[in-house]
Design goal:
heterodimer, A: 186 residues, alpha+beta, seven-stranded antiparallel beta sheet, elongated, B: 444 residues, mainly alpha, 3 domains, binds FE2/S2 (inorganic) cluster
């Protein structure tokens, strides 16, 4: 019923407007092109912005090697927290298997990578995430951490200062703490 | 964290609380009056109405007392006793015992007289405990408020489901069909259901908006990669996982167990051979399924979230509900691995050491020898125990399910049981790892 009503109207328009319809089609295809071009441009810009995001403006990475003072600055049984905030390193004058040495411990918990806290009263490194604790020598004794804290390479530089190199790590459970590069005997 | 007024002195703290606490008690009184009305009009139970009226009056009296500056306070000795009694072991075992009691006594416990009284008691305890600054701080932290709500919601829905199941079980025992079998009238999605959903959505939105205005989201200081806040808590829905991480290697607690939880939940429809109980509430016809659900969901997942939210403080130490959160509390002791127990404590020998220069195969051999006790135990738990159970206690189940289903089910179940077992071993015997091979990053 409705269709029948509409049909003559459509026919009337059809008779009058082939040119008009052609014009419409051209405009429409132009609009289509424009739309896709805009879409493409936005997508491109967006991708570029994402890519740009991967290269931050300021990248302040502390150097991998840095000096931490003279061995004489470190009294026995001392944990130096000065380098923790910038470098994530505790420089410790402690003992390992009965041998007095200075070593650089990573402050990253070996459980899931939270940053440990040195608690002077209890003489322990304590992790705030799941409660792992480590002795002064870095050995884990409490909580879920499955292995000791990692050591960084340390040596005496030419000027007599201690120098920590974070590009090399030493793991106790792999027997690497016997490596003379992982400590400075005192 | 809300900065409580006059926190410096406990008396000042209690005095500042007088008004809010008074309104709280009056609210509970009103709740009881509503219950009385409901008991009279709908349930036609004089006894219930009288009891609720009496309780409502008692709460109104408490409200008046609180407003006049004398709120109900828990005595110090009771708080101390609570703190001392509520260790991780008692908390977990107590919750398990509670579930068992709930399972056995469900017919009595879901009666309105019992359950509504339990609600009243918990609200009373809540009000009295709020006068303790440490309790109040923990409970009213913006992070923790939703968990308090969740506890009450969970209790309500557990009650609701169980009450209907108990009613059905009674009917089934008398030979009648479940209540739901009589539901024959259908309603239309549009408009009936959609209207309800729409109203639900609006109410939820209003509640969220008002809530976020009243209790602003807790923002902390900007993130600093060199400092981890102490304690560092995951969002509440991950606190169960975080708690699991205390007892397992990160690979196990963070990857294997969560994946197994999801896969196991997905597998339930394929593992469950019980055709009954579909479309209606029942406990009697699905005892095993119901017990596993109570244990796994309420007894493990929710319990772990509650421990993580309310009981864990600085250094992730365990604190009683009324205990000051002291960052220097020393609680846990040195961890011991099973291999150390086995070799050093029981055999009185040294733990076999891997010489640094040993090669691949030799090293592996020594490690396996070192972990022989843990490996045997694991094997016995996951292989021998299910096989024995299949011939003894679970024989009927094994026959009904067939081999593949039975083994899948029992392995998932044992994995789930492993969690509380290891937690309790860790708290009592300070056992850290059953199998510990850090050389190959494998720890169980
Ligand atoms: S990250 Fe340190 S204990 Fe989990």
């Amino acid at each position: 019923m409705r269709r029948a009503d509409r049909r003559p109207v459509a026919g009337a328009q059809g008779r009058r407007g082939p040119s008009r319809r052609g014009l419409l089609r051209i405009t429409f295809s132009w609009l289509l092109w424009l739309g896709f071009a805009a879409l493409g441009a936005v997508a491109g810009l967006w991708a570029a912005a994402t890519a740009r995001f991967l290269f931050p403006n300021a990248l302040k990475e502390p150097p991998q090697r840095f000096k931490v003072g003279f061995p004489a600055d470190y009294p026995p049984a001392h944990v130096e927290s000065r380098f923790k905030d910038e470098h994530g390193v505790w420089v410790v004058h402690g003992t390992y298997r009965g041998q007095a040495q200075i070593y650089a411990l990573s402050s990253v918990c070996t459980h899931l990578g939270c940053i440990t806290i040195w608690q002077e009263e209890q003489k322990r490194f304590k992790c705030p995430c799941h409660g792992s604790a480590f002795y002064m020598d870095g050995i884990n004794y409490e909580g879920p951490a499955p292995r000791p804290l990692e050591r960084y390479a340390i040596r005496i530089a030419d000027d007599g200062q201690l120098e920590v190199d974070k590009s090399r790590t030493y793991q106790e459970e792999l027997g690497q703490w016997h490596d003379p590069d992982s400590y400075v005997p005192t | 964290m809300i900065d409580w007024p006059h926190y410096a002195s406990e008396e000042g703290f209690v005095a500042g609380l007088a008004g809010p606490l008074g309104w709280y008690y009056l609210g509970v009184a009103a709740l009881n009056l509503g219950a009385m009305w409901y008991a009279l009009r709908r349930r036609r139970s004089r006894l219930e109405a009288v009891v609720w009226a009496l309780m409502g009056m008692a709460f109104a009296g408490l409200g008046g007392l609180a407003m006049s500056g004398h709120p109900l306070v828990l005595p110090e000795w009771l708080k101390d006793a609570c703190d001392r009694a509520l260790g991780p072991v008692t908390f977990t075992l107590g919750a398990m015992a509670g579930l068992v009691i709930f399972y056995l006594g469900r017919r009595v416990l879901v009666q309105p007289l019992v359950s509504w009284t339990a609600l009243n008691v918990s609200l009373l305890l809540m009000g009295a405990s709020m006068t303790d600054p440490d309790f109040a701080r923990t409970v009213s932290r913006p992070d923790n408020v939703p968990i308090v709500g969740m506890v009450y919601l969970l209790a309500f829905f557990t009650w609701l489901g169980t009450a209907q199941a108990v009613r059905n079980d009674e009917r089934l025992r008398r030979g009648q069909g479940p209540v739901e079998a009589g539901f024959t009238d259908k309603v239309l999605v549009w408009p009936d259901v959609v209207y309800i959903e729409l109203i639900g959505a609006i109410v939820a939105t209003v509640v969220l908006v008002v809530w976020s205005l009243l209790i602003p989201a807790p923002l902390e200081e900007p993130a600093n990669p060199a400092v981890t806040p102490n304690p560092s808590k995951a969002p509440w829905y991950f606190l169960g996982l975080q708690e699991m991480l205390l007892y397992f290697d990160p690979a196990v607690a963070g990857v294997v167990l969560p994946a197994l939880i999801i896969l196991g939940l997905m597998a339930i429809p394929y593992l469950d051979p019980n055709p009954r109980g579909s479309g209606y509430y029942t406990v009697d016809q699905r005892r095993f399924g119901w017990a596993v659900f109570l244990f796994g969901f309420l007894g493990l997942w929710i319990l772990l979230i509650l421990i993580g939210t309310f009981m864990r403080g600085p250094n992730w130490s365990f604190f009683g509900p009324y205990e000051p959160r002291d960052p220097h509390k020393i609680a846990a002791a040195t961890n011991i691995k099973l291999c150390e127990y086995f070799w050093a404590v029981w055999l009185g020998r040294g733990v076999p050491r891997v010489p640094p220069e040993s090669g691949g195969l030799q090293k592996l051999g020594i490690i396996l020898w070192r972990e022989i006790a843990g490996l045997t135990l694991t094997c016995a738990y996951f292989v021998v125990l299910p096989a024995v159970l299949a011939r003894t206690a679970l024989r009927r189940m094994r026959q009904a399910m067939g081999r593949a289903r039975y083994w899948l089910m029992i392995l998932l179940l044992l994995m789930m049981l492993m969690l509380p077992l290891k937690m309790i071993l860790n708290w009592t015997a300070h056992l850290s790892y059953i199998v510990s091979i850090p050389e190959y990053s494998f720890n169980l």
